[in-house]
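Instructor's aside before we start: the two examples that follow are unrelated to each other. I chose them only because their records fit on one page, so don't look for a connection. First example below.
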Amino acid sequence: MKHDVKHILNRAAGVVPKRAEGQSGEEYRRMLLAKGIWAMAFALAALAIVKGALAALPGSITVSSSVNGQEIPIYCVKTDKKQVALTFEAAGGNSDMERILGILEKHGIHATFFMTGGWVENYPEDVKAILSAGHDMGNQSESIKNMSQLSSAECLEDIQKTHTRVQELTGYDMTLFRPPYGDYDNKVISNARECGYFSVMWDVDSYDWKDYGVDAILKNVLESGNLGNGSIIRCHSGAKYTADALDSLIKGLEKQGYEIVPVSQMIYYEKYHMREDGTQVKN
């Protein structure tokens, strides 16, 4: 489309003939007058085509992530597919990462891992293993902090620093972002978008970080009133009972008929809008 518009503009510019070498000013004016009517018609037609083309371009990628002036990240997705996304935040240790990856592989499941820059720096081999296994990799900023308290420049630097770490280590360009603690404001979401990221939260929290045990994790997820098509489930690597609960959690979700997919496979990338509750809806 953009190529066609450029071609039309070039054609329109070529409508007005150049003054020939040796041609007098009066002869040139008479020639322009003779061709003026055709040139004007062509120019107007070209303008109409260009306006129509430019008007059509935004419509093909129309998105809206704000509601009443509030920037809204994705908490869940409205979909008829019985799918949920399993996400892990990697910001602490890595003692259970091998087990987590092994359990996911056993079930043939791909998840989404949101990593801090510090975790990437400390455990580069785990980052490579996550990518090699086919999982999503997401950005959780450089370190665990309340990003709403940072300036825009600090937000951008924090997000980009982690992006660069992962890119230089693996060649992978992350497009999913989760603010630490789920703390955000308009500035944080806008800055993430400026860096090329979709901001992703969760609507089902396992609360595995509270270390209440396996049964608590299973209950928090499998019996959650929010659990449904398009849900995004929050877990952590490095939590005390997460790896112990994961096998039963996957079986429980599958028993309820859910297919577990990575976030990247579930969200919409164009022609969508956000609801106030964080539901991403296709237009």
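Example two begins here.
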Amino acid sequence: MKPLIFLMLLFFLPKVIFAQAIDLPKAPRKFYFYWGYNRGVYGKSTIKYHGPGYDFTVFDVKAKDLPEPFSFKVYFDPGLITIPQFNFRFGYHWKNNIYFSVGWDHMKYQSIDDQVVVMDGYVEESASQKFAGVYNHKDVIMDHQTFLRMEHSDGFNLVKINVEKHFDIFSKARDRISMTAMTGTGPIFPLTWTNAILLGKHNDDRPHFSGLGISVFGGARLTFWNRVFFQYNLDVGYANAWDITTRPKGQPDRASQKIKYFQKMGVVGFTFNLKSPTIAPKSR
């Protein structure tokens, strides 16, 4: 969580310093926080692998997400709630229903086992005696156990910074019930945590930033008593992950892929206000 904490400090520290420098009282600042879960769909991806003794590409790889089966123990135990595909976000109201937000989308990605893909490149015997050879657009079976698997199951994690525009749809009974629509966009910083099989060898990698991307979302929010809300989002994005590690830490083996995704999420959140401190004018 350190990268997310760092981004939040960068976002809020200038505002705190600015508020301390102003003597006049400020209107309350509006914030929101949410937590929820997602499902993802992925487009076909071309994956390039390279390292000592091999350099090859597999084309049009199909993939799926890995949702955790529902159970109260997993989804409601504070020590286990980060196992499913979750979404976390913290937002700040700037002005005119424009928000800035930073969040973490914990998605999961796994290539589909035993699919037939086209492979182009070479593998030397020093890398694998079993799979050594020259591949000239050859059909191969992507066997997860013995050959090849691309899996970001500990997280196709997306750190996102968004600019959002909210639109008030209706408000009933003095804001006891209100509905808002929103849309937004911003950069993606993929923090991949990859569990790959490469030429039959397993990798359990540590998370690291592997590329850059962009996303766009639209959603609707139903708020009760101007505090608690339920929100449903549809999100599409593109991530160019050019620095995926495929061997244990310290080895030079790398992979790259461009991932297109569609995500739907349901979240529960809270809105709250914080008043800026008022500093009394200095006596003259």
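Helices lie at 2-20, 72-76.
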